Amino acid sequence: MADTAPIDALGAMLLQHDFASAVAYVEATHRSGMAVEDVYLDLLAPTARLLGQFWADDVCDFATVTLGLGQLRRIRESLVSHLVEGAQPLRAAGHSVLLVPVPGEQHVFGLEMVADFFRRAGWQAQSVPIRSISDLTGMLRRVHVDILGLTLGGTQRMDLLAATIRKARQASRNRGMAVMVGGPAFVGHPEYAALVGADATAADAREAPIQAARLLRLLVERA
């Protein structure tokens, strides 16, 4: 069983708005020998999920969770330079990925982490919140996107995700745009990706660029 003590400790610091202690704790964890990508995936990501669970369980209010996630975002930003150290060079004509939540999803911390891993792999990556499907379709009409990544928190909104994917494909200026999905709704159920009309899913931020590259190669071979 994984040790949840570090996650619980960091979560408590964030709920108490003790940002200085939270930063020092994460930095000490990194210095102790934990690779930065493991800090991302084994500490920051589960801490973000824990904060969300606290809100769902009425342990704390939405404002407290939002402030905690804001502090967690600042910690992530302080680690980005370590994550992308030695990254593949960004090419002007390189592949592009647009990462967005399903309309109505409140938090995008996980997508920001995924974007960091894509950038490390040499992709042009953008992570943005959207308020409606029309926000997304408007972006896709203006900008060429190779991969659209969508995240969903729970299975209750699968129909909305399917509709978002369908309208995104119709609007995209890149008729060959591929779609990937992720988030808690697909953890343990990668088969749900096909049900909503997506081309692939990924288990975590580390795997996402790998799966995306495989997907593009497959689409080229099929063309």
UniProtKB/TrEMBL annotation:
<protein>
    <submittedName>
        <fullName>Cobalamin B12-binding domain-containing protein</fullName>
    </submittedName>
</protein>
<dbReference type="Pfam" id="PF02310">
    <property type="entry name" value="B12-binding"/>
</dbReference>
<feature type="domain" description="B12-binding">
    <location>
        <begin position="94"/>
        <end position="223"/>
    </location>
</feature>
<dbReference type="InterPro" id="IPR006158">
    <property type="entry name" value="Cobalamin-bd"/>
</dbReference>
<dbReference type="InterPro" id="IPR036724">
    <property type="entry name" value="Cobalamin-bd_sf"/>
</dbReference>
